[in-house]
Amino acid sequence: MSKSNTKIRKCLFPAAGYGTRFLPATKAIPKEMLPVLTKPLLQYGVEEAITADIETMAIVTGRGKRAIEDHFDISYELEHQIKGTSKEHYLTEIRKVITNCTFSYTRQIEMKGLGHAILSGETLIGDEPFAVILADDLCDNEGESVLLQMTKLYEKYKCSIVAVEEIPMDETNKYGVIAGDPLEESVLRVTNMVEKPDPKDAPSNLAIIGRYILTPDIFDIIRDTKPGKGGEIQITDALLTQANEGRVIAYKFEGTRFDCGSVDGFVEATNYFYGKSKS
Ligand code: UTP
To answer: Are strands 160-166 and 187-195 parallel, antiparallel or unpaired?
Structure first.
């Protein structure tokens, strides 16, 4: 069976960034462990991957690794303490995640950018197509999750996929921005992509958000990708190589995304999920 026919079985979570916008909170705790209500961002991401029928979670960590590993592990002391008490239900959600998934970890030794973080995950992914979730982009949808929408699309197109959304033109310098030709409703074949362009240089207002499906040849491409914007190895630059061969599609997903890497987005997400929990 050709590798591209493989079902998406693994999800990679780059979680090694410094999270400087959330200092001092992120001094000893990874940004991905900050909670929206009571749940860490990374757990929302893992639960989204589960909705797409993915059970193998591959996490790229840097500093603060222990908090992530401990979160996705049994705490025997805690279990013992609250078993049979009225508080036991507080553990239900995380128990479900731990029971249904396997977690593996690797470290990105130097923070050389998202492309480099993804390459660091090669050892956990191997030679098969995989999903990527940036947990600081928190997505919610009443119907199918954003990642499930994308894995379904992968079955049709069998190539790399980036999730995109329309942004105000004056924010293009915060995102990877694409240009593409329409293929079907909400789907474009990517013809160009630029990392954090000035609005005047942006090829459109379609920004890449933190959900990707990548084919495994991306690892070799990243290895050959020179540092780009900000001196970092950018996944956008690596994907452009695939896009030049017509092998990347952009998908305008259904759902809401919160940029929880920024304080404003984080507060918005908190208000949104609080409202939802009360309705
Ligand atoms: P960001 O661009 O949000 O960077 O990374 P950051 O370091 O996390 O946050 P700020 O800008 O300093 O506040 C986007 C995603 O890529 C991961 C981050 O963990 C985050 O999920 N990342 C980024 C890495 O894993 N390694 C890197 O070298 C860079």
So the answer is: unpaired
Task: Catalogue all structural domains in the chain, each as residue range(s) with its CATH number.
Answer: 10-278 (3.90.550.10)
Dist. CA 18 → ligand 1 center (Å): 6
Helices 146-157, 41-51: axis angle to 10 degrees equals 40
Distance from Cα 31 to the centre of ligand 1, integer Å: 9
**Can you tell me the distance from the alpha carbon of 45 to that of 133, in angstroms, rounded to the nearest whole number?**
7
Q: What is the pLDDT along the chain (279 residues), one digit of tens a residue?
A: 445 567 999 999 999 998 999 999 999 899 999 999 999 999 999 999 999 999 999 999 987 778 999 999 988 888 889 988 998 888 888 989 999 999 999 999 999 999 999 999 999 999 999 999 999 999 999 999 999 999 999 999 999 999 999 999 999 999 999 999 999 999 999 999 999 999 999 999 999 999 999 999 999 999 999 999 889 999 999 999 999 999 999 999 999 999 999 999 999 999 999 999 998
**Pocket flag, ligand 1, residue 65 (CB < 6 Å):** no
15 CA to centre of ligand 1 in angstroms: 7
